[in-house]
Amino acid sequence: MNPYNLFINGQDVAPASGNYFDVLNPSNEQLYAKVAQANSADVEQAINIAKSGYKTWSKAAPKVREAALLKAADLIEQQGMARLLDILIDESGSAISKARFEILYTVDLLRTAAGEARRLYGDTFPNDNPDRISMVLRHPLGVVAVVSPYNAPLALLTKMVAFPLAAGNSVVIKPSEETPVIALEFAKMLVEAGVPSEVIHVVTGFGLECGAPLVEHQDIDCIALTGSTQTGQHIGGVAMKRMVKAQLELGGKSAALVLPDVDPKKAAAIVAQGIFTHGGQICMANSRVIVHSDIYQDFIEALKAEAESLQVGDLRDDNTIYGPLINRNAVEKIQQHVDSAVAAGATILTGGSVKSGLIYQPTVLVDSPNTCSAWTEESFGPLTNVVKADSLEQAIDIANDSKFGLSASVLTKNMNWAMTAVRGIDAGSVHVGMHSFQSNALAPIGGSKLSGVGRSGGAYSTEEFTDVKWVSIEVNESL
């Protein structure tokens, strides 16, 4: 097995330490790859080149940045499906249907970002002095540190890389140590498509040795993270200490409201998709379900049937909805959440244990107390909690009883009820007639409370990865 090296300045670079770490295939927990273990010396090298590359890339014409991103989209669409599909399946444990979606969404993100290269709009505003012009110019930030997650390791990485590049920034990527190979392959495809090698680099490794030297470096001008709230709180503190921008998309405990005018079976199918896709390893997954008492019993019976009918396991079967969780720690966390909820008075409607290996059964808890970890903490697995509400107002209050505020859904055909919920739920997005896990390359993805800071997608990413400068001009002949 040939090891994977760092990707710096368009080259495979051996780590300064000479050390490599093991990446396991979640499906069998066997060795998938050996990957370079970067340290501060490697990070320093990547940042220095990225800083130099920024000076040229930031001055490149919009059409140049646009062309490179569009070519990358074409390359992935035309050649990348086969090239990337196996990596997503074997490295991250993605079912083939989820892997295909992720690749196509990556193409969409690249094309959307390409359009943003021409949208670095400024502004003018009036001045009381008629001989003075005031304008606002928008400009890139510099070197962006990107810390990407393992759950959607291609699509979420793309969103954090493509938009900064479109705006004229350079990037240094530290991918999750669980899924570094897909990041290396993606960066190589961007360079192949025409992104200058000096402006995109990948340093692989662990938090203390690689991540910390990256985000704490004095030449990093912005930090983009998609990850846990705990990591986000730390990185946010690092950013504020140096007063640099940070775009943080963090954890969630998203609520789905099921109101009395919907078909319980149809609602259950939507909720099941919203929590069990990719084994619930999605920050927007509807892991709390609040059901009106009028249809509660019918709904939980339908949700139980949905969960028990799901096909899990074989990642290369189109009918499989999910396979293994990412690692043994993830499985143990889910089991702890289930056990503590049951000890506190919850009932297991279905599931509640490991099926095989790292595959955890689709699990539904009912009557979970709002103090147990299954209700309050992000489980990040195929586990949802169902509780009863006697009114819309009570359902909204229950939905807001969380330290997170990433996403929510409202299942109803009554638009008055829907808009009451939309206005009342404290979350970065609310989806009516759908589950809480939705993606759109143009949408402002992000959350409130401990779910993060900032928004990503389309023009909202442009806001995050650029800054504005006020310029005033005296136009008389006083000088």
From TrEMBL:
InterPro entries: Ald_DH/histidinol_DH (IPR016161), Ald_DH_C (IPR016163), Ald_DH_CS_CYS (IPR016160), Ald_DH_CS_GLU (IPR029510), Ald_DH_N (IPR016162), Aldehyde_DH_dom (IPR015590). It comes from Thalassotalea psychrophila. Its EC number is 1.2.1.-. PROSITE patterns: ALDEHYDE_DEHYDR_CYS (PS00070), ALDEHYDE_DEHYDR_GLU (PS00687). Keywords: NAD, Oxidoreductase. This is Aldehyde dehydrogenase family protein. Belongs to the aldehyde dehydrogenase family. Residues 16-471 form the Aldehyde dehydrogenase domain. Transmembrane segments: none annotated. It is an enzyme of class 1 (oxidoreductase). GO terms for molecular function: oxidoreductase activity. Gene3D superfamilies: Aldehyde Dehydrogenase, Chain A, domain 1, Aldehyde Dehydrogenase, Chain A, domain 2. The active site is at 249.
